[in-house]
Amino acid sequence: MPCVDTTQLLKGVLDLAVLAVLREGDGYGYDILRRLRAAGLQDVGDASVYGTLRRLFANGFLNTYVVPSDEGPHRKYYALNAAGRAELERNGKTWRGFASIMDDLLRDRGTA
Amino acid sequence: MNDIAEDEITGYVAEVRLALGGLPEATREELLDDLPEHLAEVLAEGNGTLVERLGAPSAYAAELLAAAGLATESPKDMSPWVRPDEVRERVLRWLRAVDVRVGPVLGYERASEFLVLLRPAWWVLRGYLVAMVLAHLLDGGSGPVGLLPRIGDSVLVALALLAGCVVASIWFGRRELPDKPWPRYALWSGTAVLVLLALAGFAGADSSSRSTPYMDATYSGGSPYDSVQDVFVYDSQGRLVEDALLYDQNGAPLRLGSQYCVDQRTGDSWTSWQRGYPHCPQVNPFRSPPPSPTDDVTPSPDSSVPASAAVPAASASERPAGGAVSPSASVSAPAPARSSAPSPSASPSR
Questions:
Q1: Closest chain B CA to residue A71
Q2: The domain that contains A100 carries what CATH number?
Q3: Which of the residues A104, A105, B9, B304 could staple to B39 if both were Cys, CB 3.0 to 4.6 A apart?
Q4: Three-state SS across A48-107?
Q5: Quick one: where's region Disordered (chain B) (predicted)?
Q6: Which of A15-19, B22-26, B279-283, B311-315 bottoms out in mean pLDDT, i.e. has the lowest?
Q7: Best residue in A43, A54, A64 to probe B by mutation, most B CBs within 10 Å?
Q8: To probe the interface with A, which of B2, B28, B29, B37 has the most A CB atoms within 10 Å?
Q9: What DSSP state is assigned to residue B251?
């Protein structure tokens, strides 16, 4: 197993990534998954995204609403609420701080 | 969305629901709420079946639980069903532990390293087992199974079949495992059948070789009939029955002794052509005294008995001869003998 496991990294930042995607606009599960993959997170698992959405909702960061669909069943849309935006801002700062530390570390050692 | 896709989605959702069985119903249904819709989108991508695209329903459920932060309730243990993949996982984990644990005992890091070295030996054994099974099938299972893969009675054919199967097995073993799953499953199940047949054959051979002493009295060690070389049958009148045939309770002929005869007294030996018992009627142990001396195999002790019986009479007449009595006594002896008065010859001995 490589020292840096992208699956493990993804677990730590998936909340942040989902919140960031939802800042661009409301979306339903499959739509959010597609946007994450389009952004470059190819390895993200379907079930992981749904589980994350459920947990963020349970923690009060998201609102949901149902949109009837023409051809299939209804779609449950997720939207950031005020608490979600605050969470995104806080976690975003944490991540930038962490990322810059890692960047410095790697630059100092001459590996990046 | 067609019916087949709908069935696939319904089945997948049902299995995920089963895997989430440990959750409270409200939580579970909330998690499953947008699953059918999502599965429909996934199928619409056209990248294969749901299992190919998303993995097993149980794995999907586990990932869902972990991401939702509900995994601590370990619904797997609470589910009453033990799924095959779980059993497989558990067995594999156990085997890996045994592999590492047993390895150092054998002098290797892992036991599997040692087993890999034994592979050519298994190929040879496999060739032998295949040859035995083939021979048993082709021979119609007529005779008892021996150690060679015999078809008929020819040892040459058996050895040729054995050599062919062993070489084929080694050649097959040196090839790569087939890539496709079906040939591999066929190989594994064939091997399993072969091992089972071998165990059955081994158990059968073991039990038949252990029961041999009771079946054939002449073959084993420790039987009271070991020293039997011939059998003499007498009728109620004490007359020797010649060419008697002996059978056991199953109608199988009893074979005791050999066709090889030895006369203990003369040291002569010959091969008998008698079909029945006794093989060697000439060495009858209870032979009555011969009615006439014409019998050329008259035992010498028989002829010596009358000779020794005559000894007292002879010694009685010889002693006086050895004594101080003059030869005249022997001259006079015939006369009193005729008158049945042996006193003159007996008196000098006192």
A1: B1
A2: 1.10.10.10
A3: B9
A4: HHHHHHHHHHHCCCEEEEEECCCCCCCEEEEEECHHHHHHHHHHHHHHHHHHHHHHHHHH
A5: 281-350
A6: B311-315
A7: A54
A8: B37
A9: S
Side chain identity, residue B244: A
Residue B142 identity (one-letter amino acid): S
CB contact under 8 A, A55 and B69: yes
The answer to the question of residue A1 being in a domain is no
- How many whole angstroms separate alpha carbon B280 and alpha carbon A92? 112
Determine the structural domain holding residue A87 and report its residue range: 6-108
Residue type, A20: A
Q: How is residue B271 annotated by DSSP?
A: E
Mark yes or no for CB contact A51/B69 under 8 Å.
yes
Domain residue ranges of chain B, discontinuous segments joined by +: 3-81, 124-215, 219-291
What are the angstrom distances between the C-alpha of B331 and each of B240, B320, B325?
Answer: 51, 12, 11
A89, part of any domain: yes
Instruction: Check CB contact under 8 Å for A46 and B41.
Output: no
Residues of chain B in Cβ contact (below 8 Å) with chain A: 1, 30-31, 33-38, 40-42, 54, 60-61, 63-70
Query: DSSP 3-state assignment of B61?
Result: helix
